[in-house]
Design goal:
This protein has about 120 residues and is an all-beta fold. Helices cover about 0% and strands about 50% of the residues. The protein is globular.
């Protein structure tokens, strides 16, 4: 069973960058697809990015493509989300999620494990 803890959120200005981290417990981190989701005020939780078990493949929502980069370090049991050129509409609670196997999907119901979330606020 994976336990996930996010960190790195904060208050930034539009155009700034921020890097989120998600540390996972357990010895099977490399067997999970990892993903980031976000939930803005009054909105449903939406897919942001996913990365395959080895990191060879990634997938992004159109709204963040070219600005955000997901990566992972299996030796450190950690997945990252580098966010550049942040916009006010990126304001949300960002969640890390894990899915057993190697198929990247964008549906939140397909992810079994979730972190508690970290707040990102972008002021315009």
């Amino acid at each position: 069973q994976a336990q996930l803890v996010e960190s790195g959120g904060g208050l930034v200005q539009a155009g700034d960058s921020l890097r989120l981290s998600c540390a996972a417990s357990g010895r099977t981190f490399s067997l999970y697809v990892m993903a980031w989701f976000r939930q803005g005020p009054g909105k449903v939780r939406e897919f942001v990015a996913a990365i395959s078990r080895t990191g060879a493949r990634t997938s992004y929502a159109d709204s963040v493509k070219g600005r955000f980069t997901i990566s992972r370090d299996n030796a450190k049991n950690t997945v990252y989300l580098q966010m550049n050129s942040l916009k006010a509409e990126d304001t949300a609670v960002y969640y890390c999620a894990a899915r057993w196997g190697d198929t990247m999907v964008a549906e939140k119901d397909d992810y079994s494990y979730w972190g508690q979330g970290t707040q990102v606020t972008v002021s315009s």
